[in-house]
Design goal:
86 residues; alpha+beta; four-stranded mixed beta sheet; two-stranded antiparallel ribbon; 3 helices; 6 strands; globular
């Protein structure tokens, strides 16, 4: 199954490591450092250029992680994971 992140972007469930709220996770320095390092490494994908609400960490086939920045809230994304056909 796949999770629709918006703007025609899908990622496979088995590749998802975590779904994180940007407001709560970027309060801590380690989270900010992680996101900055991912961006500098070219591993950040903006799904939409609207106000971001969450990021999704995924493990790609080449074993490298990617960070998807999405305008959808974590609760919306989790609902999509629990009910993928709705």
């Amino acid at each position: 199954m796949y999770l629709h992140l918006g703007e025609e972007k899908l990622i496979a469930f088995e590749n998802i490591i975590g779904i994180f709220d940007l407001d709560t996770t970027t309060v801590s320095k380690p989270s900010r450092d992680f996101l900055k390092k991912a961006e500098l490494g070219g591993r950040v994908v903006n799904v939409s250029y609207e106000l971001p609400k969450s990021f999704i960490l995924s493990a790609e086939k080449n074993k490298e992680s990617k960070v998807y920045i999405a305008q959808l809230s974590t609760s919306t994304l989790l609902k999509r994971v629990k009910n993928p056909l709705k």
